Amino acid sequence: LYESVWALPLKQQSKQMDTLEDKVELLLTTWGSLDESMQELKRKVKEEAHLYQYQSKGTILFDQGQFQEACAQLKQEEHVEKDGIRCLYVGYASLYQSDLVESEAQFQYVLFLQTPALITHLAYKGLGLIAIVQHDMEKAIHYLEKAQPLAENHELMYNLGVCYFTLGNYEYATTCFRQYAYPVSYTHLTLPTKRI
User: If you average pLDDT over every residue of the chain, what do you get?
Assistant: First the structure.
């Protein structure tokens, strides 16, 4: 548009320049709004970051894949301020060792604590994974669907797709797999209303 203004007669140049000025003003207003939103988001993330930070000997062992040692260490760290996060670590470490009873107990305890949405999401996801391992797909769907609205996690859609596919509900499974494969493109999709 800018370059084409110079090729126009003088009368039309004025009209095009007005259009350019309007677009520049709109762009600057939009940029200002985006910048304000970005600053607000940064402030909010900074304020809430402390809710999810927890590092200890147990979490380091977990990150190194030493799940048995991590469980033992994390259990000794009881009564810490961020007990919900500690219990998530114990729950997932137990799950990775196939100790489903301990894992489920830890995730249920996290739900009992009424933790922030992201932590609750991860507890429901853990319970859903346990149900998948136990081949109880309906129970898995129950927990995974409870987790879904609490936090964005497109991998959850893969797990839901597996559950629906296993139950023979291919329409639901297809929708879930599409949302997993194309998380941005298919965010407008909703699950079909009819289920098995």
Answer: 79
